[in-house]
TrEMBL record:
It is found in: Membrane; Plastid, Chloroplast. Residues 24-134 form the Rieske domain. This is Rieske domain-containing protein. Keywords: 2Fe-2S, Chloroplast, Iron, Iron-sulfur, Membrane, Metal-binding, Oxidoreductase, Plastid, Transit peptide, Transmembrane, Transmembrane helix. It comes from the Eukaryota. GO terms for molecular function: 2 iron, 2 sulfur cluster binding; chlorophyllide a oxygenase activity; metal ion binding. GO terms for cellular component: chloroplast; membrane. PANTHER family: CHOLESTEROL 7-DESATURASE NVD, IRON-SULFUR DOMAIN CONTAINING PROTEIN.
């Protein structure tokens, strides 16, 4: 049926539309950036470049040299702390001012350097909780306006009464570029019901765990503050609910989504997903995890029992390596879903309201997200951006871990180099020992003396195979729902 007409009170509650440009975005985990190289970023369709200046501060420019529009992300950071454009050698300081134009005559240089057109477009940045935050635009007022807005982080981190109860807060998985858009990413995490089916054998069982949900609105939607819900399972409750946990879910624009399980002791586990709209049909995920102790120092049951892989202390690169085993379960759905949704809208000039049929209470948060997006006019991309969400023909693209993460992560690139070196050394040593063992068997006319060499070669060969398998995970992690029995 037709929707009810909105009242004046509802319009007042929503407030002014959300401004996508006048907001902070978590763009990268600093620990995973290489301070010696410029890093390419994308935000709202605009290419950006992040780099470290002479004072050791991270700077972000629009990724365009004012000379001839080539990407500054292909440049170099020089020893004097300037960013060198690799096309013609123009150099920029941390404030975006040009400090060198090799092609300029001496008598013209000062005048050219003073011209505002010689400057790179800069963005306000913040370093907060180990993350590089970038402002949504680079207007003359950007620095002043950005100073009046705080990045969205868990409220507990700013509450003095909670200070001693935050047992851990970590951007533990690092950034990951996903083959679907902001809309699909937020739809997915606001859809609590999909977890029991999509993530079969990781978090749940698709045959026994799906059940009805009751969704209770805790905070009505507004343009600036988003919305929040409580989620209750009606039957066949999962392990966390058996421990008396209350599950809540919250969205705060432009990126912030959290799911919190709070136990009777007051202890809680919060999973945070920030989705950064990089360009149409693509998003960057910046996840985090927060653990709060109870009023008497109790830890959440899931941490005490230790049955969650995410609770096991592992090297940072190894935790990054495991992420695709979960994330890729969603990729194949969401990449295709956005293409189908756009096609359906073009076929019948309809919207998600006609294309989707969401009759269950479990869909309440997804519906609310879509209404929030409609109310605020959709994502405000830069002018002229192409919004084609067609699916790629080659599904291998969806499982490309190198493109999605490794190439952008200094931690994983270093680990990949070490694993590759170990793999090649083991292969060479295995070949050497095996060859020596075979030669010894001929010289000594028997295998008894050569068994240690052959056994050592076999053990090294097994190590080579294992490191080769690990090396492959940096590049690709395939997944098939049909094969996940």
């Amino acid at each position: 049926g037709e929707e009810e007409e909105e009242t004046d009170q509802q319009r007042e509650r929503w407030g002014k539309p959300f401004s996508w440009q006048k907001a902070w975005y978590p763009m990268a985990v600093v620990e995973d950036l290489d301070p010696g190289r410029p890093a390419k970023l994308e935000l709202l369709g605009q290419d950006l470049v992040a780099w470290v200046d002479a004072e050791g501060h991270w700077r972000v420019f629009e990724d365009r040299c004012p000379h001839r529009n080539v990407p500054l992300s292909e440049g170099r950071i020089e020893k004097d702390g300037t960013l060198n454009c690799s096309y013609h050698g123009w150099r920029f300081d941390g404030d975006g001012r040009t400090v060198a134009i090799p092609q300029a005559k001496d008598q013209d240089l000062a005048r050219l350097l003073a011209n505002p057109r010689a400057c790179a477009a800069t963005r306000p940045v913040k370093m907060l909780r180990g993350v590089l935050w970038v402002w949504g635009e680079s207007s003359p007022d950007a620095r002043l306006e950005s100073a009046l807005v705080e990045p969205v982080l868990p409220w507990e981190l700013a509450d003095p009464d909670m200070k001693d109860r935050v047992a851990s807060f970590e951007w533990q998985w690092g950034q990951r570029d996903l083959p679907y858009g902001w809309e699909m990413g937020l739809e997915n995490v606001t859809d609590f019901a999909h977890t029991a089916v999509t993530h079969h054998r990781v978090f749940a069982d698709r045959y026994t765990d799906p059940c009805p949900l009751e969704m209770t609105c805790l905070r009505k939607a507004t343009s600036r503050k988003g919305f929040a819900f409580r989620i209750d399972t009606v039957r066949d409750v999962p392990k966390e609910r058996e421990a008396g946990a209350v599950n809540t879910m919250e969205f705060v624009p432009p990126c912030y989504h959290r799911v919190t399980s709070t136990y009777p002791s007051g202890a809680s586990v919060t999973l945070i997903n920030c989705f950064v709209p990089t360009k149409p049909g693509r998003t960057r995920q910046i996840p985090a995890k927060m653990i709060l102790t109870g009023t008497n120092g109790e830890l959440p049951p899931s941490v005490i029992l230790g049955y969650k892989l995410s609770d096991i202390p592992l090297p940072r690169w190894l935790r990054h390596l495991f992420q695709p085993f979960f994330v890729h379960q969603d990729n194949v759905f969401l990449h295709e879903q956005q293409a189908i949704l756009q096609l359906e809208e073009r076929k019948s000039a309809s919207t998600w309201k006609k294309s989707y049929w969401m009759p269950c209470e479990a869909d309440k948060m997804t519906i609310m997200l879509r209404k929030w997006l409609d109310r605020n006019g959709g994502i405000d991309w830069i002018p002229g951006i192409v919004r084609d969400l067609s699916a790629v023909d080659d599904k291998e693209f969806l499982f490309d871990s190198y493109r999605a993460h490794t190439q952008h992560c200094a931690t994983c690139k270093a680990a990949l180099q070490q694993v590759t070196t170990a793999n090649r050394a083991l292969e060479y040593a295995a070949l050497l020992l095996t060859s020596a063992g075979i030669s010894a068997s001929f010289v000594l006319h028997g295998l008894s003396e050569s068994w240690p060499l052959l056994g050592g070669g076999a053990a090294l060969g097994l190590g080579a195979a294992l490191t080769g398998k690990v090396r492959g995970l940096f590049y690709k992690v395939r997944y098939s729902h049909q094969d996940n029995e």
